[in-house]
Amino acid sequence: MQTEHFALNLADHNFLMTLTAKGQLSARVFKRATALLELHRGKTLRSISETLQVSYQAVANWRDNYQASGLQALHDKPRSGRPVVIDGKQRASITALACSTPPQGHARWTLRLLADKAVELGYCETLSHTAARKVLKKTICSRI
Prior knowledge:
Helix content is 56%, strand content 0%. It is mainly α. The protein folds into two domains: 10-74; 88-137, no CATH class.
């Protein structure tokens, strides 16, 4: 079975050559760029996959993505993920609350008390004590 030869256009080839020569790429982008250059030189998918220690299918996917979207195929597409529930401003407010004096009748802030007070003050809609712990874990406040 004869396969079609893969060829980069001159501008893309020059761009990939300069990109790989710089040496300041993530491993993913470097492997993808190297694979495209090797395909351009006429190497097989199997030999490239063995050289780069990736699967045959990965190299085939990189080739197909390049043919579909050009050099955009070097980088990962943005992934959907869980949206941020507590942003930076809310984190700062919770941290400031934790570093303030505790309410009357309490010697120190507990995580549950802090979470309840943050919701009461309107810093966020909901906040569990474990989420409050995660917020405070990234700070240097040691009042809790």
